[in-house]
Amino acid sequence: QVQLVESGGGLVQAGGSLGLSCAASGIIFGIYTMGWYRQAPGKQRELVATITSGGSTVYPDSVKGRATISRDNARNTVYLQMSSLKPEDTAVYYCNAFQPAWPKGGPYWGQGTQVTVSS
Predict the structure, then answer these.
(1) Do the strands 67-72 and 57-58 form a parallel or antiparallel pair, or are they unpaired?
(2) How far apart are CA 12 and CA 40, in angstroms?
(3) What are the pLDDT digits (tens) for 5-34?
(4) Can you tell me the distance from the alpha carbon of 37 to that of 63, in angstroms, rounded to the nearest whole number?
(5) Which of these, 14, 44, 57, 63, has the minimum number of CB atoms within 10 Å of its CB?
């Protein structure tokens, strides 16, 4: 069974930094594009960052310059580091794994971890 388990969420002050981790199991981690998405109440889930198996990254303008996604294939873990946090970063952050060329390549989602940024 596929499991994506996020950790590292919590309450931080505006301007602060926070790091999230997602530990994956049940997938061939190294062939998956991994991503972080977030969803605030009443809003659509949105992309935060993705990183391909080859290490290419994508960030939307909303977090560009403040977010860094990385992966450690040896540990089957993807990370998200965010700085200069804003109240609008408050959301549930979800880990994602996707490999469309693989018969059971997902997408898979974690349960999410709450990030709250206080002003």
Answers:
(1) unpaired
(2) 16
(3) 999 999 999 999 999 999 999 999 999 999
(4) 11
(5) 44
